[in-house]
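Need a sequence for this fold. Nothing fancy.
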């Protein structure tokens, strides 16, 4: 597997202690940004998932009546996954924490962790706030930790699982030997 997050570091791990497995950019149009990233960087192919609904979401400690609906394109870029995410419905979100409508840029890096609760505690020990927490429709919780003051972007965390590792493997496998055709592919 490319950048297998189950492998141990050769250096001493920090409090959060996990490798970065994804870099994500907030964009105005995920499909167009994916086509551009393929052409500009050779990243891809990208798998587009439109209008991702969430079971629930909290932003800055407040439950959201309308969880942040978003579209993401996922592709391989060297040893890490690249996510290109857009916000589909306006409202408070971890995306709007960094970017106003029409703005784009680096939004977050992501890591898989053993325990979200343990990671929240480790983040608090570092003086970091959980900016947003949410749960997918299939029951997977994830969060954005506010590392803007330290790194200029957020840190996304989610618990390692076979399903998640399988998706990362699927994206990485698609990139191996890819001929550049069909750079953006829709997933249902």
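Here you go.
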């Amino acid at each position: 597997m490319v950048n297998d997050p189950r492998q141990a570091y050769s250096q001493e791990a920090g409090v959060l202690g996990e490798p970065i497995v994804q870099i994500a950019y907030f964009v105005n149009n995920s499909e167009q940004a994916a086509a551009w990233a393929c052409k500009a960087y050779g990243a891809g192919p990208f798998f587009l998932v439109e209008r991702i609904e969430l079971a629930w979401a909290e932003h800055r400690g407040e439950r959201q009546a309308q969880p942040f609906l978003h579209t993401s394109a996922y592709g391989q870029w060297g040893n890490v996954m690249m996510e290109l995410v857009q916000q589909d419905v306006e409202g408070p979100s971890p995306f709007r924490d960094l970017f106003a409508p029409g703005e784009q840029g680096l939004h977050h890096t992501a890591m898989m962790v053993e325990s979200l609760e343990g990671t929240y505690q480790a983040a608090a020990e570092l003086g970091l706030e959980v900016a947003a927490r949410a749960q997918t429709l299939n029951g997977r919780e994830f969060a954005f930790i506010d590392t803007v003051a330290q790194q200029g972007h957020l840190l996304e965390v989610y618990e390692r699982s076979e399903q998640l590792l399988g998706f990362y493997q699927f994206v990485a496998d698609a990139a191996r030997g890819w001929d550049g055709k069909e750079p953006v592919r829709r997933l249902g």
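For context: The two ends are 24 Å apart (CA to CA).
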